[in-house]
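Appendix C reproduces, verbatim, an entry submitted by the partner laboratory led by Prof. M.T., so that reviewers can inspect both the input and the predicted structure.
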Amino acid sequence: MDHGDRVERLVMLIRRLAQARQPLPTSEALATTLGLPGRETVYRLMASATDRGLIVVHRRGDGRVCAVEAPDGRWRVTRAVPQRACLRCRRPFAPAHRVNFLCLECGAFAARHG
């Protein structure tokens, strides 16, 4: 299988994940799913797909991939946000952003009661 075929397979896999509303897996998981030798190969394929205009890669401040989307915006897949314990009730929740430390219920309570 040549480089172009690998790029196409990666883009198709990412598009299917977006359409199924699944989170973007790690580079290691993508490599395993596609039968590639390692995450470095996935990095190279993503760079090639970006250069060819097949995908747009969004990165966090530290350079890690946080989302991949179609150039026309028809689909987008993001990394899963790890769960954390709410600082008020201690129940696990998936924050909408890395600076959220209260679950929705406790956040609403805090907004009402100051």
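The domain at 3-78 is CATH 1.10.10.10 (Arc Repressor Mutant, subunit A). Additional entries are available on request from the coordinating office.
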